[in-house]
């Protein structure tokens, strides 16, 4: 396996299966019992060994165990498929399990079948992010870890889940953008911390014990799979220190520091040990086969032993792939790496296993030991999957309030489009069929929609129905791991189908877009015959029901786009391989994301309508913030009379007294319409000019319910050092001095930041 890139299909099956298969498996298994699995380690016979003593501090147990292992035994523990040590009563362990949006069988550590035929499938992450509801993210993590732990107890999953994927969705064409929480560092960072907290649910002394162990991946600036001949195994991303610090690394830092994640996965060419400087309490795993790729494709090291030694010395603790098991012994024998370094790696992995209770004997006697088959796909879990889809769905267009449709007026509905096939089961049984009689015509037989297609039959169905719902967009044939898109348009003849059906439709036409990445649907946005447009991501097992509930008004949509929807010209002009976030006026490079790109958009980041309307007012916000500098800093930039820093200056975050620098903004939200609704308040800040800082940055967000014709107040906290700083060209975070502006909807508020150097 080393030498050839890993099979690309292994890790994205979860999203492929998303709409249909697992819905069925989820309903079939309630109320069964499973046999408990035997102890992973420290069963009765071995319980006297010191490393098995639950009451002893974990680091002492780890030290004891490492002291008992031979070099060969140690080396076989450095890989995902770790060998057992039978003489010490330790079983083999497969580290690779995944749970991006539900426990999945993408990694070899998890398999379905028997008492566990399936798991609850939540929407793909990009849609869940669109809810802008951090408590939902944490709740999903808790449910997923209930199911993961239940499957572990039944012997069908590991406890180490290599999720979430929190890379910044930098380019709209990225095939794996769907797995991420979008383009904004704050959203991605809060998603990472919330989902990880939900998954790990730390407990016990110093909250050191873990329900399951999560993993934030792929560190860092990994967001290209295969685009016009550039693939991730050979692509050498050139990223500035500035973009790393204030864009790409932000979610990882928050994942480690706020989420306290137990692991970070490094992408193909970056095993640098960097996360350790944020005090990662856990292990670093390589992306699968990356150590082999690092040697074979990138020719970085001259012998396999050098590659193994370099990886371990750089801080890698676990190799997803066989390479370290094959070459580390040789590397130690040739003196390229010391056994002590191997011990450091093992200490990190064994510590996590001990924190998971794997060395505590019988699983059934441990906290979470009673979770079993009835805790997988329980009614509560399934309703959370529906809730997540409902909260994420984004209403992009709603001309003359065409939506919601009233079930009493629209009795017959044509359901058209290639993605209506993928969701046929749900639409028939739980979806639109609950509200209206449906006439189903695919129009395009598949998502690529090339060549001869049954468009005419769909046109006829639309002509004969009271309303038409087109379920269009992408699937895994267009965007996936190892598959980036080349343009942002609907594939093949989909656009033609939409236009023809819309113009023939007797009643309103509703366009439902399934996709992870953005689509240029300007044609539909401008077409008055397309009354409404919804974006539904890949909505998971309850997607059909959620779409119907939104269309027929049982749920008022409140999702907002977590990415910028660029026009096709963006893709035509900007190479995917250009990693720069910041615009470069000198060569016409437009920059990326709402933070740096100011060109035309199809829909902006944060766009999302509701069936009601909301207005904001700022009830309280500071007008001036004083940054006190720690020690005698900054006099070079200060006004010698006043001691204040000059306005063009920007203070280093490490020089500021950050603990004093929290600010609160109170916002009143009024629901001025006649329906209750949920609303995400997005608070942006713009710094003073002249710094190559983002011209706008999300600094806080909060989702709240507001009843019709009433008002609610929300408090948004801003951490000045984290949220109002940006990186300079050297990657050093600074707080710009001068006038900053807050934006909430159409409301603005300005405040100034000044700095005082002590002793002047
Ligand atoms: C956020 O999600 C939780 C579920 O975790 C839900 O109970 C709550 O109502 C949601 N908040 C809003 C404003 O939608
Ligand atoms: C320093 O502050 C004083 C008082 O506000 C002002 O008059 C002076 O112009 C400032 N000097 C500089 C160099 O900005």
From TrEMBL:
It is found in: Secreted. The keyword Lyase does not apply. GO terms for cellular component: extracellular region. Residues 1-36 form the signal peptide. InterPro entries: BXL, Fn3-like, GH, Glyco_hydro_3_C, Glyco_hydro_3_C_sf, Glyco_hydro_3_N, Glyco_hydro_3_N_sf, Ig-like_fold. GO terms for molecular function: alpha-L-arabinofuranosidase activity; xylan 1,4-beta-xylosidase activity. It holds the Pfam family Glyco_hydro_3. Its main location: secreted. Keywords: Glycoprotein, Glycosidase, Hydrolase, Secreted, Signal. Residues 679-748 form the Fibronectin type III-like domain. One of its GO terms (biological process) is arabinan catabolic process. PANTHER family: BETA-D-XYLOSIDASE 2-RELATED (PTHR42721:SF45), SUGAR HYDROLASE-RELATED (PTHR42721). This is Fibronectin type III-like domain-containing protein. It comes from Spirodela intermedia.
């Amino acid at each position: 396996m080393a030498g050839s890139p890993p099979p690309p299909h292994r890790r994205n099956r979860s999203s492929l299966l998303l709409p249909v298969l697992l819905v069925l498996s989820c309903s079939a298994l309630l109320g069964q019992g499973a046999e408990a699995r035997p102890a992973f380690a420290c069963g009765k016979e071995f319980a006297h060994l010191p490393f098995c003593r639950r009451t002893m501090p974990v680091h002492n147990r780890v030290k004891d165990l490492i002291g008992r292992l031979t070099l060969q035994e140690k080396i076989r523990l450095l890989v995902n498929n770790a060998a057992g040590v039978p003489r010490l009563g330790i079983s083999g362990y497969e580290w690779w399990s995944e749970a991006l949006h539900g426990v999945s069988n993408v990694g070899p550590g998890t398999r379905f079948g028997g008492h566990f035929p399936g798991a609850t499938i939540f929407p793909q992450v990009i849609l869940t992010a669109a809810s802008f509801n951090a408590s939902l993210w944490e709740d999903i993590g808790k449910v997923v870890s209930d199911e993961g732990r239940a499957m572990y107890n039944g012997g069908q999953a590991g406890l180490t889940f290599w999720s979430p994927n929190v890379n910044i969705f930098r380019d709209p064409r990225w095939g794996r953008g769907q797995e991420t929480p979008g383009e904004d560092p704050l959203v991605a960072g809060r998603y990472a911390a919330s989902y990880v907290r939900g998954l790990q649910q730390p407990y016990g002394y110093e909250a050191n014990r873990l329900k399951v162990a999560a993993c934030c991946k792929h560190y860092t600036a990994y967001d290209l799979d295969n685009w016009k001949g550039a693939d991730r195994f050979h692509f050498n991303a050139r990223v500035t220190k500035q973009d790393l610090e204030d864009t790409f690394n932000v979610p990882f830092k928050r994942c480690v520091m706020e989420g306290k994640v137990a692991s970070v996965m490094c992408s193909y060419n970056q095993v640098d040990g960097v996360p350790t400087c944020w005090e990662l309490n856990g292990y670093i795993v390589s992306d699968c086969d990356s150590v082999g790729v690092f040697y074979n494709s990138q020719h970085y090291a001259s012998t396999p032993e050098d590659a193994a030694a370099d990886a371990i010395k750089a801080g890698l603790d676990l190799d997803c792939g066989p390479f370290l098991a094959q070459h580390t012994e040789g590397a130690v024998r040739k003196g390229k790496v010391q056994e002590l370094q191997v011990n450091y790696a093992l200490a990190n992995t064994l510590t996590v296993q001990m924190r998971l209770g794997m060395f505590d004997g019988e699983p059934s006697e441990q906290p979470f030991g009673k979770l079993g088959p009835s805790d997988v796909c329980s009614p509560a879990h399934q309703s959370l999957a529906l809730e997540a889809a409902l909260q994420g769905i984004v209403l992009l267009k709603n001309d003359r309030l065409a939506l919601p449709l009233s079930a009493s007026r629209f009795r017959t509905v044509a359901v058209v489009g290639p993605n209506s096939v993928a969701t046929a089961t749900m639409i028939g049984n739980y979806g639109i069929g609950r509200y209206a009689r449906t006439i189903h015509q695919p129009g395009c037989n598949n998502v690529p929609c090339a060549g001869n297609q049954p468009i005419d039959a769909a046109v006829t169905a639309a002509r004969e129905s009271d309303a038409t719902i087109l379920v269009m967009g992408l699937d895994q044939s267009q965007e996936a791991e190892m598959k980036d898109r080349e343009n942002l348009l609907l594939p093949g003849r989909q656009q033609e189908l939409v236009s023809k059906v819309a113009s023939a439709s007797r009643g309103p036409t509703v366009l439902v877009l399934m996709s992870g990445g953005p689509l240029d649907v300007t044609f539909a946005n401008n077409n008055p015959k397309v009354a409404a447009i919804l974006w539904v991501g890949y909505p998971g097992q309850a997607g059909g029901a959620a779409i119907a509930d939104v269309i027929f008004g049982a749920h008022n949509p409140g999702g907002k786009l977590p990415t910028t929807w660029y026009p096709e010209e963006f893709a035509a002009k900007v190479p995917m391989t250009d990693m720069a976030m910041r615009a470069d006026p000198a060569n016409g490079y437009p920059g990326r994301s709402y933070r740096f790109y100011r060109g035309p958009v199809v829909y902006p980041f944060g766009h999302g309508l509701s069936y009601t309307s909301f207005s904001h007012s700022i009830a309280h916000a500071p007008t001036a913030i004083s940054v006190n500098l720690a020690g005698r800093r900054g006099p070079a930039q200060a006004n010698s009379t006043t001691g204040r820093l000059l306005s063009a200056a920007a203070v280093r975050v490490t020089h500021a007294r950050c603990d004093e620098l929290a600010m609160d903004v109170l916002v009143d939200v009024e629901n001025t319409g006649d329906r209750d609704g949920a609303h995400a308040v997005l608070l942006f800040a713009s710094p003073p000019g002249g710094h190559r800082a983002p011209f706008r940055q999300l600094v806080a967000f909060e989702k709240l319910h507001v009843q019709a014709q009433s008002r609610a107040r929300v408090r948004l906290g801003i951490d000045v050092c984290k949220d109002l700083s940006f990186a300079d060209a050297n990657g050093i975070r600074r707080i710009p001095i001068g006038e900053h502006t807050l934006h909430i909807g159409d409301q603005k508020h300005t405040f100034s930041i000044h700095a005082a150097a002590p002793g002047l």
